[in-house]
Each structure stands twice: as structure tokens, then as C-alpha cells.
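Colleagues,

For the teaching module next term, I've prepared a clean inverse folding example: a structure given as C-alpha cells, and then the sequence designed for it. I'd like students to try predicting residues themselves before seeing the answer, so please don't circulate the second half yet.
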């Protein structure tokens, strides 16, 4: 087997199948990797945002839907059992069970 480069980039054609273990592989990208701990990253972002004094944080607030205001000055976020939250900006952090928030988008498809 030919040497595989250790920097990011396409693997040579002659070793794609061996690297991927997939018979008809058309391409493989290989390089150094790393990882992050999602909860630690989210916690750091939350702490930094809260420390700025410019953020309100709503936990246990499942969103029914959100719409941009007609005047373009922010968003109305309808929260189940809590009413509407008015916001200048909205950050959507999601995992699963949120297709209803993006009707007509690729995420809406199964």
C-alpha cells in the first residue's frame, strides 16, 4: 500500500478502498483529527454570554415556533406554556425533535 499523507487532503486513488474499507469508494479525505466535548463547549458559551450582561437565557422553554417581526427589529418566539418572548436575536441550538420549527426546509424531511 502506498504511503498515506498525514495532512488534510484526498487520499491517493490507489489506497482509497483500503482506507475506507468500502469496495466502490470514490474519494477519501484523511488527516489529523481532534474532538470537543459538546457539553463543555456549550457551557463555556453560556457562561461567556451570561457574563456579558447582554443576554437573557431561558431554560426549559420548548419553542412552538418563531417568526421575524415585520419591522425587521427582532423575533417573536412562542414558547409552550410561557407565552411569547421578544428577542433582538435568536440562536437555535437543537438536537432532535425540532422539524416543526423548519417547515419546508431539508430538516423537515425524514
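(Answer key — instructors only)
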Amino acid at each position: 500500500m502506498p504511503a498515506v499523507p498525514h495532512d488534510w487532503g484526498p487520499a491517493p486513488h490507489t489506497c482509497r478502498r483500503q482506507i475506507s474499507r468500502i469496495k466502490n469508494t470514490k474519494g477519501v479525505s484523511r488527516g489529523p483529527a481532534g474532538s470537543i466535548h459538546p457539553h463543555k463547549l456549550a457551557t463555556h458559551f453560556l457562561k461567556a454570554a451570561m457574563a456579558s450582561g447582554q443576554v437573557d437565557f431561558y431554560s426549559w422553554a420548548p419553542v412552538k415556533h418563531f417568526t421575524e417581526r415585520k419591522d425587521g427589529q427582532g423575533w417573536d418566539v412562542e414558547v409552550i406554556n410561557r407565552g411569547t418572548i421578544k428577542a433582538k436575536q435568536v440562536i437555535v441550538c437543537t438536537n432532535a425533535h425540532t422539524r416543526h420549527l423548519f417547515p419546508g426546509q431539508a430538516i423537515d424531511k425524514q
